[in-house]
Amino acid sequence: MTMQTLTNTRSWAAKPLAALLAGFVMAFSLPLSAFAQAASEPAAASAPAAPAATEAPAAAAPAVSTEAVENPYGLKALWTQGDFVAHSTLVIMAIMSMGSWYVIFTKLFEQRVMLKSARESADAFWKANSVKAGVGTLTEGSAFHYIATQGIKASDHHEGTMVEAIDKHTWIGMSIDRAVGSVQSRLTDGLAVLATVGSTAPFVGLFGTVWGIYNALVKIGISGQASIDKVAGPVGEALIMTAIGLFVAVPAVMGYNWLIRRNKTVMDQTRSFAADLHNVLLSGKR
After folding, report:
1. Averaged pLDDT, 5-20
2. Do 15 and 43 lie in a common domain?
3. pTM for the structure as a whole
4. Domain range holding 33?
5. Which range scores top for mean pLDDT: 118-122, 237-241, 274-278?
6. Are residues 227 and 110 in the same domain?
7. Is 175 left (phi over 0), alpha (psi -120 to 50) or beta?
8. With 198 labelled, which of 10, 220, 234, 251 sits at a CA distance of 20 to 30 A?
């Protein structure tokens, strides 16, 4: 083999190897270039969005308004726009509410005075030397002072043809029972007002609501506009009447039940005092 032939054979063998290397380089470089291009495109796309993201808070920060909006459909509007019936209903419910609260506070004061008299009778009355001396220890004008006075009067004045026909035990017992009945009647005075207010105030408020809705529907029918602002406002004002009626009735009912329970406690102590007084007046000992 000559030098020329060897050179030609080597060059022929190197050509396929060079072609294989070139193809391998191209196959490996194409995915890398595609990946680099794909990675650069989102970055390029997100780059303009960054200023928009930074500018968004500045655009989305409106000025906060602190101005108070007055409710055009409240209690004030109900009074100013209401007719004679609406005004009368509100005045009646106001009187009922004031009357019920007056009765509640008055009865609580009376019960407190009677409970105080019960403590005084336990501390001073039964430690006195006599019933008449014990009456002087009680507060004048109190229920226990009144019962003791009536018992002493019955014991000292058991005389007369008609009175003597009744034995002294029965006569004193009748007098003390009448005194206890008078005290109980005075305690229950005013509770009928609470019962009446508690049972009728919701219906008075409901009447005002019905009347207000009727007037609202009449106005809507005359104007020919049935939009939400024309319907919700007047109807909402009318419903305030029902809320006021419940506001008046609930304290009256709760106060009535509370006072009845306290009256029972007071009357139990009063009857106990009256029974002990009866025994002392008859036998001279408790």
Report:
1. 45
2. yes
3. 0.64
4. 1-61
5. 274-278
6. yes
7. alpha
8. 234
